[in-house]
Structure formats: structure tokens, C-alpha cells
């Protein structure tokens, strides 16, 4: 129950599964036509049937000479056209030949985007920040992300920054997402207010599939970086969505290594036999945990602070993909799909929610460890170096979960009788370990692709569409109704109407208590 591929070891021996179970899961995979579905994805078939789209994020990291077709057209040359354009543009910004409106180099980047246009790039940025090679390339530069429509996020992002040295990258697949577009208009106002409206052309660029709306917004189409409708938002970190901001920060050569890491897993996923296929094994075991054993959650526990944004990214990849109630043909499912993903880096999580994992609910855990620290620390006279101290916990926790501690053991240790029930650990709590030989751009790409494909495997087995996200629409449209009401009440004093009793009461209260908000305000930007 251990497999190894290209610097990564997976140990799944502590799952609640025997070799026989895994054999049965292979049979399940066969019955669900898993191999065929993987091939259909790689072949550019329109497997996202509710949106009539193919699912080709693997093409985003394919080598230049690869051939991957969508509708009979090889998409790889288009991918590389954009990558070449990003390389050229990011080099110009980084070497100071592209300057801002007042002639100053643009050393700060704010990437505006939300969901898939934010979480993946944030994860990769956070992981690269402490990598010695990447951080050398990022010297003197700063990359920030503005996601939340909460004006506090604007305040936090622009605090201490001058528009003169800032480049804003508006990242939105659709270029219609309410939060992103309001934040983009806000930073456009921030730039215009200080440097005049003509400065926007030098200080704002865009990443989108909707180049018409980019132009309408006022961004020069030459400064727009395209991607395609066959890239799902949460699978877009390897498109210009991630590649542009990350190349601006770290240089294209680092980002290319990240793409190569992801590509190595793509090849492994599409060609390795199931017994040796890391994403397939992980996906099958997740199906086992969720659908057969009934465990609704999964903890993602990287023993690396550099991976602190990994769990938040996988939350979207997994829960937006597999949190579905009907099959791909629209038939209500007689079983649960998806799992509740959460996590924190170790050892922080140990001092937070591990109590529940050890003695409360059963939560299958993914322990992710790294052999060589990005930032080793050795202290003279210490028992072990700092990374070994971290990794002592990485190796100990899975065994604590698996073996537990019995009442007999506690008795032998002379534990007071009344404390024995409290100090007993049931054991037999499932976990798996993923050990990476290092954590550089290449490995970060591998880790990303492993989880992307694992989620796809789960969806393929469950027979759902892992690539649409209709569940996010209803809340968005109800917010439109509230937005209209707030405008009508603030500008014309209209009473709250058309909502249920609860919402009417709360909205009325909100309006009453904020009656000092101006009806037709002048632009006001945060100052902290
Ligand atoms: O939350 C819904 C969603 O559509 C995500 O799937 C997507 O990643 C996010 O919104 C942002 O969308 P866009 O990139 O179009 O702004």
C-alpha cells in the first residue's frame, strides 16, 4: 500500500481498507468506466455536458510540441502563444522597460479575482514565497490578492502602496463577477484619482476569456491575456490566471517549472496502471471513505507552512466540483457525493481541531510532508533540527490515529481509573501520507495536479459532472434583488418590499441603522 512516482511517495496503508478492498475499488472503477472517462477528458470531449464544454486544463501545462484537440483543433499552440506573451510582458515589467504613467517601475502587483481566479494563484504564491530560488527572483517585488468585495480588503491591499508603482491585474474568466468588477472599478478609481484617467492603460491589465468586456472596461486588448472556456475557473491556475501574476512576481522560468511539475502528473495520471496511479488511488480511497464508510469530511494537513493556502484552494477544487445532488444525466443520487474539505498546516492544526479527529468524529486525514525544508534551521545543542521537529509530528500523528491507546495500556501506566475513559484513543482512524522530496515550483505543480485529478476521479466514479457549478447561482441572483432594494431605499426612500418576513425585518433594520450613508456619494477610498 505504497506507491512512488517522480519524487513523491504515497502511503495509504492506514486507510480502513485492505488489499481486497482496493481490488474491489478497481472493479468499481471498471464498472464506472473510469479509464474511458479519463481518456475522454484528455481527448477534449465535451464531458462538461451541462455547459457543453470540454475540460482541458491539462493542455495548459502540456509541452510545446504536444497535440491536444478540442473540437478537432490542437489547442496547445494557442496556450503557448499566451505563455510567450506573458513571458515577454512580465520580463518587461520586471526589468523596468514597462513603466507606470510617471515613469516609475511597477514593483507591486495587485491581482483582483475571486474563487478560481484567486485561490489557486494564492496557494502557489504562498508556497513559492519561501522557496530560496523563487524568492531570489522575487526580490524587491510584491504580489497581493484582492478577492473579497468587502471594502476592508481594498483597504488592506492599497495600504502603504502608491498607484505610481502598482500594476493591477484584473482576473476574471467571465469578466462579469460582481465582486471582481466592483473591486476593479474601485482600483481604477484609485489609480485615476492620483494619476489621472489616462494612467489606467499603463497600470491595469486583464486575464479573461471575455476580451470584449475587457475592452469595454477600458483595458487595452493588447494588455489582455486570454484563456478559454475549456478551462474551468477552479482549474485555471495553470492558465494566465495564475501564470501572469506569478510570472510578474517570480519570473516566467520559475512558473514554467511549476507547469512542468503539473504536466508530469498529467502524464502519470493518463498512463500509469491504476495500482500505481497516485490520483486514481487517492480518488478511489476518497470514494471508499465518503460513500462506503460514510465519513463526510477530509482533513488536508500539510506539514509545511508554505502550504498554508493549499487546503483553502482544494476546498474550492473539491467542493465546487463534487458537491452535487444529481448524476450527470440529472437523476437525483441515492448516495452522498463530495466531502467537506478543511485543513491547516501541522503543527498548528494539532493545537486546534486534532482533538476532534483523535477522539471525536472520524475524519480521514491527508498528511503531506516534505523531506527537505525550504528554510532549514539548525541550532547548536538542540536534539533535532527545526524541520526534524516538525516532521516528528508528521510521522507520529498517523500512528496515533491508527493505533490509538487502550484502557489496558493506560492501566499499565498507572493512570487514575476515572481518567482512563478520557485518555483512551479508539484508534483505527484512517489517514494517508504523501511525502514530497522537496517543495519547489516543480513539486508544487505536482501536488496541485494530484489533487485536481483525484477530485476528477471521484466525480467520474460517482457519475456526476465535476466541472459545472450551478449551485453558486441562486445566491448570486438573490443578491441582485437585494442590491436593487438597497439602491431604491437609499436613493428614493422606498420601503423594503418583496422579501420574506425575516429578510424584510433584517434589511429594514440595516437601512435604519445606516441612514447616514449618503444617497449619491462622491468617490471615497479607504485610508489606513
Ligand atoms: O463561485 C463561482 C465562480 O463561478 C467560480 O467557479 C469561479 O472560479 C469564480 O466564480 C470566479 O469567476 P470569474 O473568474 O468568472 O470571475
Automatic annotation (TrEMBL):
Keywords: Gluconeogenesis, Glycolysis, Isomerase. Its EC number is 5.3.1.9. Coiled coil: none annotated. Pathway: Carbohydrate degradation; glycolysis; D-glyceraldehyde 3-phosphate and glycerone phosphate from D-glucose: step 2/4. The keyword Coiled coil does not apply. It catalyses: alpha-D-glucose 6-phosphate = beta-D-fructose 6-phosphate. Homodimer. NCBIfam families: PRK00179.1. Belongs to the GPI family. This is Glucose-6-phosphate isomerase. It comes from Hevea brasiliensis (Para rubber tree). The lineage of its organism: Eukaryota, Viridiplantae, Streptophyta, Embryophyta, Tracheophyta.
